[in-house]
Design brief:
The chain is α/β, with parallel strands linked by helices. The chain contains nine helices and nine strands. A nine-stranded mixed beta sheet has the order 3-2-4-5-1-6-7-8-9, sandwiched between helices. The chain starts with a helix and ends in a 30-residue tail after the last helix.
């Protein structure tokens, strides 16, 4: 599934590369930029985390001329008099204006490096609204964003990923230079396809899918991901032994009547007394009428 996503067959898609501190997804992001340039598409990059020189490192040849870098790295908050691009310009009107500044016959691909920087300074609902408007507006062909999942709460990550048509979660591999990519792809019909591959990235930014994790034997579970037993370190025992269970079953509860007690209460024994009561006219008392006992 990873090579299909690199080919960019889904127009109007929104792809998120989700990484963490253990493995950076920027190399894979540059591979998607390189693949879009090789398809003769214009690529607009909102660069918040790295400079233009660092981003273009490894991208060579004439396709780089179609790469438009909007510098939000030097002054992302607009502290100087003439900032190139700030985080407060992340809205539909400003992004549409940036994309339409370049004359190119094909719709452009918008790359956001990274969404985490924007989410740290704008509210998640505002960011999600802008992303949804960009998808539906038709100004860009596709949106590719890098998201550092360990920098945000789960609700924020889930809200942004819910808008995406594809989510690639990268993690370090067990050995060598390979990395693990867990892919979730949602089709227009609502079908969700899951895949997991081991890949590597060459110096020319081409992605090589090595194998499936299942072909390498059982997957080792991270000790932090293992399910802990909440009853492991308690000072008391939550489980009953066989002797304790038998004693519990024989115990008579205080408000539960046995058959013998029910029979003794319902059936009077011979020689027991009875109370006979015949109500008279004065006993006809209406509780709902407080003046019923008055002779009025």
């Amino acid at each position: 599934m990873l090579p299909e996503l690199l080919q960019g067959t889904d127009a109007g898609g929104f792809l998120i590369i989700q990484d963490s501190a253990s493995y950076s997804g920027r190399h894979l992001l540059k591979s998607f930029i390189n693949a879009a340039l090789n398809r003769e598409e214009a690529v607009h990059v909102l660069g918040f985390e790295v400079s233009e020189e660092e981003l273009k490192d490894g991208l060579k040849g004439s396709p780089v001329q179609r790469l438009h870098f909007h510098n939000a790295y030097s002054d992302p908050l607009g502290w100087t008099d003439q900032p190139a691009f700030t985080v407060h310009q992340f809205c539909l009107e400003e992004l549409t204006r940036l994309v339409k500044q370049t004359s190119h016959p094909k719709p452009a691909t918008l790359v956001i490096d990274s969404l985490s920087w924007i989410l740290r300074h704008l509210s998640p609902p505002a960011v999600c609204k802008t992303l949804q408007q960009l998808r539906k507006g038709g100004a860009v062909r596709a949106i590719i964003g890098l998201l550092h999942a360990d920098m945000h709460q789960r609700g924020t990550v889930g809200s942004v990923c819910h808008l995406a048509t594809s989510v690639i979660t990268v993690a370090p591999g067990m050995k060598g230079d390979g990395a693990v990519a867990k892919i979730t792809k949602r089709s227009k019909s609502g079908k969700v396809v899951l895949d997991e591959v081991i890949f590597s990235i060459k110096n020319d930014l081409t992605v090589v899918v090595q194998s499936k994790p299942s072909q390498l034997g059982p997957k080792q579970i991270d000790p932090e991901e293992q399910e802990t037993d909440p009853t492991a370190n308690l000072t008391f025992n939550l489980r009953l032994s066989n002797t304790e269970r038998e004693a519990k079953e024989k115990l008579a509860l205080p408000f539960v009547f046995s058959k013998e007690k029910k029979t003794a209460l319902l059936h009077s024994s011979p020689g027991s007394g009875r109370i006979l009561y015949e109500p008279d006219a004065n006993d006809d008392y209406d509780q709902e009428d407080p003046d019923d006992d008055l002779d009025v």
